[in-house]
Amino acid sequence: MGGIRKDSAGGGAAPRPWGSGFFIAPNWVLTCAHVVLNGETRQEATAVGQGAREVAVSFSGGNVAGVVEWAEPLSRAGSGIWPAPDLALIRLLEPVEHPCVWVSERSAKAVSGKEVAYFGCTEVEGEIQDFYGRCTIRGGLGQDGILRLGNEDEMPEGVSGGPVVDLTRGEVLGVVKGRRRGLDGGLAVSLVQLRRIPMPATQVRTETDDLYQRVIHAHDRHHADRQHDVRSLSGTWTEAQSVIRATAGRALTPGQRTELLGLLAELPPPTSTRALEQLVALVHRGHSPIVPLAPRSWREGMGLLYDQRSGPGELEAILRYAVLAATAERPYPALSGTERGIWHWVEATAAAAAVPRHVRRALADERESRLRSRAVTSFTALRASTSGSSASGVSVLLELVPRGWEPDRYEWRICLMHSSGRLEPLAEEFEGTTLDELPQRLSGSLTEAFRRADEPGRPAVLQVALPLPLLGLPVHDWPAVDGRHPIGALRPVVVRCSDRSAKESAHNLAGRERRWQSVHSGPLPPFTVLDCEDSRSQPLPEIGALRTLHARTLPALCRSANRHHTARQDIVTAGYGVALWRREPGGRDWICADFHRGLQWTVRTAGRAANLPDTVWRLRADTSAGVPEAYWSKGVALLYDDPTRPLPEADEPLEAP
Question: What share of the chain in percent tops pLDDT 70?
Answer without folding.
Answer: 87
